[in-house]
Amino acid sequence: MFERFTKDARAVVEGAVGHAEREGAARVEETHVLLSLLDREGSRGSFALASLGLPPGGRTALLRDLDETRRRGGLSRADADALSGLGIDLTEIVSRVEETHGEGALAAAGRSGLLGGRTGRRPFARGAKELLTGTLRVAVAHGERRIGDEHLLLALTVRRGVPSEVLADHGVTHASLTRVLYGEQDRGGRPGTGTGPQAEAS
Questions:
Q1: pLDDT score of 104
Q2: Are the beta carbons of 173 and 157 closer than 8 angstroms?
Q3: Residues 88/67/122/152 CA torsion (nearest 10 deg)
Q4: Residue-range definition of the domain harbouring residue 172
Q5: CB atoms inside a 10 Å sphere around CB 60
Q6: pLDDT tens per residue, range 125-146
């Protein structure tokens, strides 16, 4: 399948591995793929994000929301709201944990200890593997043979979890991305002509 990835899509995957390594994470997660997508410039995925109000260099609020989610141990804003409805103040819990164990203690819980100078590539977590597989279905659904970074972004938005929730909070949904990338659907359900840079052929 990876031979069908464009240069931009391959760069996103490599960037996700880099994010995981710098963070000291045991595995490459979907959040690392999102962080790598946010790093990109001049690609179809980057164009789509900019068209939806998230230009390169202007993604600070989204990154802040991702950091807050990590600080809560991976619980999204929706999770926090649901717990609040049960009388559980997640902010208070996070504060107490950080008082005892230090700032970012819950975020660090999913990281591996690198005290031995661990080297080597991080494996992909199950969710990240499923995301990569899902990009093929997204590309095929739009009649495209190559898998670009825009397909990674689209695949992220249809998966349940923190990346899609944080993106949706900033107006980036599957529907909005499809509209930006492919325009209106024709009567046969096939994508119309979108705007923006074309996917790379290699």
A1: 58
A2: yes
A3: 100
A4: 2-74+121-182
A5: 9
A6: 999 999 999 999 999 999 999 9
Query: What CATH number is given to the structural domain containing 12?
Result: 1.10.1780.10
Residue 104 lies inside a defined structural domain of this protein: no
- What pLDDT does 184 receive? 59
In a domain, 96, yes or no: no
Check if the beta carbon of residue 155 is closer than 8 Å to that of residue 9.
no
- Number of structural domains the chain divides into: 1
Answer yes or no: is 26 within a domain: yes
Q: Which residues of the chain have pLDDT under 50?
A: 105, 108-119, 186-202
Other C-beta atoms closer than 10 Å to the C-beta of 187 total: 5
What does the block give as tokens for 45? 């995925």
Q: How many residues does the chain have?
A: 202
Question: What per-residue confidence (pLDDT) applies to 191?
Answer: 43
User: Across-strand partners of 137?
Assistant: none
Whether residue 27 lies inside any domain: the answer is yes
Concatenating the DSSP letter of every residue in 159-185 gives S-SHHHHHHHHTT--HHHHHHHHH-SB
